[in-house]
């Protein structure tokens, strides 16, 4: 047992105090506390006084205490200029904490509200920046001066040991090529998936393990990697869970609600859906058109502005869907039960009543709060089968009849029509991969999609009519810069593109329709996709280019999107749909709060960021599942299509499966390949052989790494000698040895475990 520090008669430990002990002494001292008083209190003498002086100077530079030597005062732990890190977005404003917070401190790091500027804006969770700080009232404000590069990028990985017994962190981020030496293993063992942080500022600094996640190749671990890597909140605070339990018990009164329980409304969803936001119904109006109802879960009745539930939902922004789990925006008691529209159960709904003309245009709309009792929950495949084999009842037949009119109007609008296959990972009960396939696109999907689009347009226009705040779903027209790049690319393919014309989605559609060769069509489709802007949420309307709509909002998925919940609240206000005040500890009001209205810009920026975060996490996870699925098929040849070209090689995806992999230019032989950025192609200087976006070719799978999701291919006649494994650790610098003075140690780039980074995990902690 380690010897305990000596204590004086006051019971205070003797010897050089920690920063925490110094702060506690300053706080509790009944007289001014300077260096002399601190030294006396802790019995510091001789050389230890020099160490104390240095520690006090460090604390002053860190902002823990002021710099006066006669009497130090605690400063709250925030230097005047320091490096901060964004930990969350609250009400549209970034919240940051000091990056270098004393780990010995018992105090939580202070939270600073970031006041963004034109120079430093659009900060998101995980961003680092240099800031000037000031204390204002009882809180702290940060004024960003400069955005800094990420220090923690790729610091999730698997613990490995080299031949000399030294631990390394093999990255799970496919953008990170090299392993990092581990200086502090903590509780981690070989083979563990861990989170780590740098122990210094050097790019090659050692890292410290801060969290052990577990076995990286265990069933259902790939989504955990994405959750940790992207910082997705997945544990609900206790106060949010308690509020969810309270609101779940609210009685569903028919007061101020339209009773639609006798209307045979149905929900058509994926067979494995756990939350059901929307349900639909239609019947002929006798004049060639249809009357329809789109019933949406009335989440705004349960999630009130200002409550713990609202705060957590706003922080999450949206649900995140992985093959093995859902990270919901709302606690499960709401998302999968009370708010979910399920058959034969009374549910609170926001009803959008539509009139569809014989031409397929929505000519009238109104919104009510309602009680619904669904006639059925039907899977897409079952609904489609009933229509195809003639066994459908009148409810389904009427929905298809109304949809044919909506589809007619859609064709007249001519929205952007890109054939973008969606990969679907199917797992068995043990979480093992059963199948990876491209999701089949049915008319049943289009029926639901077009009803949802009609309701979303109605919501946006209804709020515009009422001059109410709108959270628009914005997809802007391609920028001139992107169109110029598109024009140059088409010119390289011998195709014209006029810049003077009004750009509409139909221009792209007609261009693609005129191409008969599948390979060329895929090539141009990739170029069209690159020319598009990214959709976002915002309070200013700029239209939806892709859907060819002037006004568009998201209204139909409030269980899983915060933007839709804000639209519901605006409709509550505009149509005077407020319900009687519930009893108990439930926040008042279900319409927009003052905070919703005044901070709408910041809130929509924040939820646009969380949406992008979710998309990246979902895509990364699918890539890992695909790599795991293919890891047993290394060496096989696949039909692929080139999806991207760079100077260092080209990327290809396996057709009908997905999974992008790199073919390094170094594996194409001794010939020199020229890169044409405008044409997006590599051309062999001697042979004239080209590799261009859209080309189809057979490639051999050279590597599939489930931890990173990375694939590498090679052309079938290549020896693959240029393929560098991820996680490669460079050998140590060679040392000069004099004869007879010993021999160099074995390089840690190799050893009993073979080439590092080429992970073939056989069980947690086992030798590989």
Task: Provide structural commentary.
- With 768 residues, this protein is α+β, with helices and mostly antiparallel strands.
- It is 27% helix and 24% strand.
- Residues 1-10, 102-106 and 733-768 have low confidence and may be disordered.
Q: Structural class of the secondary structure composition?
A: alpha+beta
Can you give the helix content as a percent range?
25-40%
| Order of strands in the sheet with most strands | 1-2-3-5-4
Q: What kind of oligomer do you see?
A: single chain
Q: Can you give the mean pLDDT?
A: 84
Q: What's the shape? A: globular
Beta-strand segment tally: 31
- Radius of gyration, in Å, reads 30 Å
- Work out the helix count: 16
Portion of residues in beta strands equals 15-25%
Point out poorly predicted stretches.
1-10, 102-106, 733-768
End-to-end distance: 37 Å
Biggest sheet character: 5 strands, mixed, barrel
Task: Walk me through the topology.
Layout (H helix, E strand, L loop, with lengths): L18 H10 L6 H7 L6 H14 L19 E10 L2 E6 L13 E3 L13 E9 L2 E10 L7 E6 L5 E5 L8 E5 L8 E6 L8 E8 L7 H9 L7 H11 L9 E2 L6 E4 L8 E7 L5 E8 L10 H9 L3 E2 L4 E2 L4 H7 L7 E11 L5 E12 L2 E4 H10 L4 H20 L9 E5 L5 E6 L4 H23 L6 E3 L5 H13 L12 H9 L4 H14 L4 E3 L23 H13 L19 H5 L1 H31 L6 E10 L2 E6 L5 E5 L8 E4 L4 E4 L5 E3 L3 E10 L4 E5 L54
Parallel strand pairs: 3-5, 8-10, 11-18, 12-19, 26-31
Antiparallel strand pairs: 1-2, 1-4, 2-3, 4-5, 6-7, 6-9, 7-8, 9-10, 13-14, 14-17, 15-16, 17-18, 20-21, 22-23, 24-25, 24-30, 25-26, 27-28, 28-29, 30-31
Helix pairs in contact: 4-16, 5-6, 9-10, 10-14, 11-13
């Amino acid at each position: 047992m380690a010897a305990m520090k000596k204590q004086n008669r006051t019971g205070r430990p003797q010897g050089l105090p920690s920063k925490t002990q110094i702060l506690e002494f300053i706080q509790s001292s009944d007289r001014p506390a300077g260096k002399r008083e601190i030294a006396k209190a802790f019995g510091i003498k001789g050389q230890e006084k020099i160490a104390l002086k240095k520690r006090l100077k460090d604390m002053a530079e860190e902002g823990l205490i002021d710099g006066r030597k006669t009497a130090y005062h605690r400063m709250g732990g925030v230097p005047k200029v320091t490096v901060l890190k964004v930990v969350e977005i609250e009400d549209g404003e970034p919240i940051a904490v000091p990056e270098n917070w004393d780990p010995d401190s018992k105090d939580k790091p202070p939270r600073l509200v970031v006041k963004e500027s034109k120079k430093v804006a659009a900060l998101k969770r995980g961003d680092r920046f240099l800031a000037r700080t000031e204390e204002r009232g009882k809180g702290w404000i940060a004024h960003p001066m400069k955005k800094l590069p990420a220090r923690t990028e790729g610091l999730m990985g698997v613990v490995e040991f080299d031949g000399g017994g030294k631990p390394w962190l093999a990255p799970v981020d496919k953008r990170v090529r090299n392993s990092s030496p581990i200086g502090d293993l903590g509780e981690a063992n070989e083979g563990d998936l861990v989170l780590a942080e740098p122990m210094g500022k050097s790019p090659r600094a050692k890292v410290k393990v801060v969290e052990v996640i577990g076995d990286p190749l265990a069933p259902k671990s790939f989504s955990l990697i994405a959750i940790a890597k992207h910082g997705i909140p997945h544990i609900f605070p206790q106060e949010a869970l308690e509020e969810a339990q309270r609101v779940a018990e609210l009685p569903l009164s028919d007061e101020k609600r339209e009773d639609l329980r006798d209307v045979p409304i149905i929900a058509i969803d994926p067979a494995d859906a756990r939350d059901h936001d929307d349900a639909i119904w239609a019947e002929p109006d006798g004049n060639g058109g249809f009357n329809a109802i789109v019933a949406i879960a009335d989440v705004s009745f349960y999630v009130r502005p200002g409550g713990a539930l609202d705060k957590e939902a706003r922080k999450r922004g949206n649900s995140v869907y992985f093959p093995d789990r859902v990270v919901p925006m709302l606690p499960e008691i709401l998302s999968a039960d009370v708010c979910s529209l399920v058959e034969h159960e009374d549910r609170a709904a926001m009803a959008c009543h539509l009139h569809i003309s014989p031409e397929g245009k929505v000519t009238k709309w109104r919104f009510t709060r309602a009680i619904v009792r669904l006639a059925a929950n039907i899977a897409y495949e079952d609904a489609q089968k009933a229509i195809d084999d003639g066994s459908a009842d009148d409810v389904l037949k009427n929905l298809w009849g109304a949809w044919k009119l909506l589809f007619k109007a859609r064709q007249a609008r001519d929205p952007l029509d890109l054939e973008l296959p969606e990969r679907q990972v199917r797992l068995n009960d043990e979480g093992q991969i059963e199948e990876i396939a491209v999701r089949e696109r049915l008319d049943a999907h289009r029926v639901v999609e077009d009803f949802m689009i009609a309701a979303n347009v109605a919501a946006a226009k209804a709020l515009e009519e009422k001059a109410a705040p709108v959270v628009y779903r914005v997809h802007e027209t391609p920028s001139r810069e992107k169109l110029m790049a598109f024009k140059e690319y088409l010119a390289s393919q011998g195709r014209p593109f006029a810049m003077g014309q009004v750009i509409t989605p139909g221009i792209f559609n007609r261009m693609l329709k005129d191409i008969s060769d599948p390979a060329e069509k895929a090539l141009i489709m990739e170029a069209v996709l690159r020319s598009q802007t990214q959709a976002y949420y915002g309070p200013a309307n700029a239209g939806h280019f892709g859907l060819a709509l002037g006004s568009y909002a998201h209204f139909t998925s409030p269980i899983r999107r915060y933007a839709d919940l804000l639209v519901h609240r605006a409709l509550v206000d505009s149509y005077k749909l407020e319900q009687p005040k519930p009893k108990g500890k439930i926040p008042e009001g279900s319409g927009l709060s003052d905070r919703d209205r005044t901070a709408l810009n910041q809130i929509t920026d924040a939820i646009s960021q969380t949406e992008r975060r979710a998309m990246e996490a979902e895509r990364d996870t699918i890539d890992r599942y695909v790599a795991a699925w293919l890891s047993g098929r290394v060496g096989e040849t696949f039909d692929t299509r080139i999806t991207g070209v760079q100077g260092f090689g080209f990327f290809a995806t396996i057709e009908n499966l997905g999974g992008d992999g790199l073919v390094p230019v170094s594996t194409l032989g001794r010939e020199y390949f020229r890169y044409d950025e405008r044409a997006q192609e590599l051309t062999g200087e001697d042979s004239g052989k080209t590799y261009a976006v859209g080309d189809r070719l057979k490639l051999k799978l050279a590597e599939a790494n489930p931890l990173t999701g990375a694939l590498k291919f090679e052309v079938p006649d290549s020896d693959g000698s240029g393929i560098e494994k991820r996680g490669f650790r460079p050998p140590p610098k060679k040392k000069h040895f004099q004869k007879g003075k010993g021999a160099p140690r074995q390089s840690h780039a190799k050893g009993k475990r073979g080439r590092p980074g080429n992970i073939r995990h056989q069980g947690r902690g086992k030798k590989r």
